[in-house]
Amino acid sequence: MIIIGVDFHPEFQQIAWVDTDTGELQEKRLAHRQEAENFYRALAGKKVRWEWKPVDMHAGLNAC
């Protein structure tokens, strides 16, 4: 299974993922729409679990 964490920002998406079968861990910054579309299309047919938080929540937590 691939577990993906996504941090959404207005200008980009910061993505980190781990493949639980291989232990491979990667991180990527997607700054362009086409780059993001290609990344998500490559996941088609794979077992994926998503974790995400909107940028508003992130900013609110930092203010506490």
Compose a concise summary of this entry.
28% of the residues lie in helices and 41% in strands.
Describe the structure.
The protein is of the alpha+beta class. Helices cover 28% and strands 41% of the residues. The protein is built from two helices and four strands. Strands 3-2-1-4 form a four-stranded mixed sheet. Strand 1 (2-8) and strand 2 form a beta hairpin. It is globular and about 30 Å long.
Task: Quickly list its features.
single chain, 64 residues, alpha+beta, 4-stranded mixed sheet, 2 helices, 41% strand, globular
End-to-end Cα distance, whole Å, is 34 Å
The number of E-state strands comes to 4
Note the main sheet: 4 strands, mixed
Overall average pLDDT: 81
| Proportion in β-strands | 35-45%
Model regions low in confidence, pLDDT < 50 over at least 5 residues: none
Please give the order of strands in the largest beta sheet.
Answer: 3-2-1-4
Principal-axis shape: globular
What pattern of helices and strands is seen along the backbone?
A: EEEHEH
Q: Which class do the helix and strand fractions yield?
A: alpha+beta
Radius of gyration, in Å, reads 13 Å
